[in-house]
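User: For my dataset I need records formatted as: sequence, then structure tokens, nothing else. Please produce one.
Assistant:
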Amino acid sequence: MVYIGIDSGTQSTKSIVVDAESGEMLASAQRKYDLIPNLPPGNMEQDPQEWIDATDATVQECIQKIGKRADEIEAVGVSGQQHGLVVLNASNEVIRAAKLWCDTSTAEQCQEIIDEFGGDASLIKLLGNTMLPGWTAPKILWLKQREPENYESVSSILLPHDYINFWLTGEKRMEYGDASGTGLMDVRTRRWCEPVIEFIDPKLEEKLPSLGSSRQAVGLLRENLRQKWGLKKSPVVSAGGGDNMMGAIGTGNIKPGVVTASLGTSGTIYAFSASPVIDAQGEVAAFCDSTDNWLPLVCTMNVTVATEHVRQLFGWDIPKFNETVAAAPVGSDGIIFLPYLNGERTPNLPSGTGVFHGLTTTNFTPANLARAAMEGATLGLVYGLNRFRTLGIKPAEIRLTGGGSQSAAWRQVCADAFRLPVVCLATAEGAALGAALHGGWVHSLVNNKSSNLPDLVARAVKIDEKSRALPNKENADKYEELFGRFNGLTQRLASGGYL
């Protein structure tokens, strides 16, 4: 048997094919696309047709690459960027571009929801989470207020991976993992939160798909796609999930102790939990995962965004950038960088900006600026890891993913700043791999076959031991002191209205 995994992200869609028995990746294909340009500040949107075209093209390429083994395809799983708002009319046509996870134009609607329920603490009691600008609920309220004609024509509201599942199967539904990032679901009970839904629109629940277990299938592949792709039979399409939920499976983060940190355009750090992890401060997202457990998560919006800006500023290629960072001193000779170039989600600074602090005539060098950018992006994730520890999560090892994880210098910064061993996976396809494995697991479940997700993960998720970095105590102590300054500077500037 073989499984297809599809990872539809902000910058590209990648599809892979995985052998069920060996766990080996047999084929992969990728298509890139862009955000809609020239939108007002804070608006981040994309045409959902881009995802469909890229999914279609990459799956067909993978099928061609595996030849006759295409007859063995039993399951498809989809991973998608979280929080995006896809709205369809009664004819199932997309009404407008999707507002994405990184869209911060909904800060006003976010505050409206928070104020309506008496503040963050009251909202956390209702949902398990407070309301953040990137989440889906404030996007719905924004659409209702700013584009009432479009809102009036909305018949269905889907998340990005749900929309791809709908295209694949003709079925609309939402599973617990991705739904937990909408701001519409009580993560403790895994039910829609009626008071929040009623406040946005008394008729909103009619527009939402049915909510159900992540262990179920959405349906079978549509007949027209089966024929187009030349498949012998229609594979099962699993519930799939958000990219973080699928990334957890694809990095082996399905048991206590393992923590995943993604060094991508944005940054995420998340862990497995068998019970809800509710942060009274609202900084750790109390998500559900895609195995019907929970996935406490912290997201920052500026990781490789920050380092890539500095790299391009000096005209370096990636090896030169990493070489320069490695040669600079720990702590960047006193320079601290607050990396909030796109605003920030943790801490919640939707209008935040970046800051270089501590510049002098002696430390103001390209190397120190480059290292400060890398350290600043990492310290944002340290904040999240510290919150995890406060909430009772005990990390033993960090599994790094994303483009930044390919840098040995960055891996060492992470090991030192986290005070934990860090290691990469043998394949960079965490979310796509997780989607494929989830598809295979759900295929077995719906067919009443013996299925064990840990066994699937053990075969397919392989550690790259050559990438392992261990913390240096002297450097770790320096980063602990640096983090105190980083955090204090953020708090002071934010409270003064400068962030």
